[in-house]
Amino acid sequence: MSIEVISILLLFVSFFGLLAYGVPVAYSIGISTTLTILLNIAFLPGITTVAQRMTTGIDSFSLLAIPFFILAGELMNQGGVANRLINLAKSLVGRLPGGLAYVNTLAAMLFGAISGSAVAAASAIGSVMTEPMEEEGYPRPFSAALNITASTTGLLIPPSNVLIVYALASGGAASVASLFIAGYLPGILVGVVLMIVAAVIARKRKFRRGEQVALTQVWRNFRRAFFSLLMLVVIVGGIVAGIFTATEAAAIAVLYALVLGFAYGTISTDNLASIILSSARTTAVVMFLICTSMAMSWLFSFESIPQLMTNFLLDTVSNPILIFLLINLTLLVVGTFMDMTPAVLIFTPIFLPVVTQLGMHPVHFGIIMVLNLCIGLCTPPVGTILFVGSGVAKISVTKVIKPLLPFLAAMVGVLFLLTFWEGLALWLPRLFEVL
Questions:
Q1: Whose CA is closest to 114, among 147, 154, 151?
Q2: Cα–Cα distance for residue pair 224/40, rounded to 1 Å
Q3: Which residue did the predictor score with more confidence, 361 or 53?
Q4: How far apart are CA 298 and CA 293, in angstroms?
Q5: What's the pLDDT band for 94 if we cut at 50, 70, 90?
Q6: Quick count: other Cβ atoms within 10 Å of Cβ 233?
Q7: 3-state DSSP call for residue 146?
Q8: Which of 6, 140, 206, 369 is the most buried (most CB within 10 A)?
Q9: How many CB atoms lie under 10 A from the CB of residue 398?
């Protein structure tokens, strides 16, 4: 057995073995990468290579957007934005049968898009909506399941940190601007499909309608939420118009959220330090995941794993549709036990050469990958949003699984529609000429 085969076996066996043993993902990636490089000590300078690749992996101007967007999300989370968006959603769709279910979904979509964080959306919207929904006769597991799945739409609708990570992992094949624009239609479609599923369940179980809201109240709620919604227009509009880069947009988002928080009176000099500290902790976790994943990605290239995978799939499976299905299935499984950021960084270099050889655009594949891994965030055993949403609703994960199934089935349906209809992802980028 050659040293190349032994290296690949050691890399994957040690990585999945450490994950199975309960070692955190970032440490599993770093340890397995280090062990494999040490095996190749005759060709590589050992530990020095790991440290070097981890450092150069995060030495990117584009990645500066991530800590800024994280801080902007924290500021918006503390800035009273969730209640304003919920009140706006109530006035728009609350009167419909099962109206609070639509309010939950729409508010999670809006807040997730503004904050760029599915965790923040699940926490903020879930903590506000769970009790009122229960008082109106909505089972707590149902509202938690809806909140969990709806919160993931913010990872598709820009600004989204994971789309920035994919742009980095693609090696420049997909720009941040094109990915941001491409995420709109799939993200909105996921939200609409979740509302349709909620509507069917609401009619079947005869959930209550909300109260009729006067047009004056709708206008009042819109005015209160206007400046929060304007943040999306400023950020994405500025990027598409070429006024500023994604990194500069992230810095503007921080300044905008800070001014908004002080204007609303929900952020003060007393709690600003704790907000910055919280965002710094989150940034440290994300960046450590990125730097270890970049080291592993470099090792993939050194061992020629992407080329081997491309040749294997193209030589053994002749049907492109079957290859796309296999890649989707693999990512669905990966998403159940691996966090989104390392999954994107590790599997993009492996699968992107395969799909591009079959004619799929890198931007199209990026949106497919993100939606695929969004489903993983909602599923056990490691689904981050599943545990956050269950914790906010104060119920066990096992009680959420059954009501979660129809929503997950709807997301999988959108995933396969997106896979075989490239226009869903590429129509808007082509329209704005950012491809």
A1: 154
A2: 60
A3: 361
A4: 9
A5: low
A6: 9
A7: helix
A8: 369
A9: 10
